[in-house]
Design brief:
The protein is of the alpha/beta class. The protein has 2 domains: 59 residues, 2,3-Dihydroxybiphenyl 1,2-Dioxygenase, domain 1; 54 residues, Signal recognition particle alu RNA binding heterodimer, srp9/1. The protein has 2 helices and 8 strands, in the order βαββββαβββ.
């Protein structure tokens, strides 16, 4: 079956943003600059621009780049990254860190449907949805 992965575009601060997400999520980060790429010499982008990055844990992957291939960079609310947290501690940590210098759209709180939920625009303009469903007790 095909997999879906968010691919985030940045405006020259991909390394900083992906490192920020690595610190929050604790996942493995791989980065390739334009200068590290075999095609780098033929590209007009600055050599330290991030051509491709991937933040991974198991089959979970978030990718990012500074390159726009002729398109103008803009953030929008048409894409949101949803993180289904495994523990209450995890959702609290993610919310606290993503909120730093960001904008909280929905504070972290218990929702009527039984989840803890929050929505944040981080300091890089990326929209995040955080969710935690406590496992029902038997």
């Amino acid at each position: 079956m095909a997999t879906l992965n968010p691919y985030l575009k940045f405006n020259g601060n991909c390394r900083e943003a992906m490192s920020f997400y690595k610190d929050i999520l604790g996942w493995e980060l791989n980065i390739m600059t334009v200068g590290d790429s075999p095609a780098g010499d033929s590209m007009s982008a600055p050599k330290d621009s991030i051509m491709h990055s991937s933040l991974m844990q198991g089959e979970r992957v978030i990718m990012g780049s500074d390159l726009h291939w002729g398109e103008e960079h803009s953030n929008g609310n048409g894409l949101q990254i949803c993180v289904n947290c495994e523990t209450e501690e995890e959702i609290n940590k993610f919310f606290q860190k993503l909120s730093i210098d960001g904008h909280v759209l929905q504070p972290l709180m218990d929702m009527p449907w039984g989840s803890k939920f929050a929505s944040v625009i981080d300091k890089y303009g990326k929209y995040w949805i955080l969710n935690y469903d406590e496992a029902p007790t038997a």
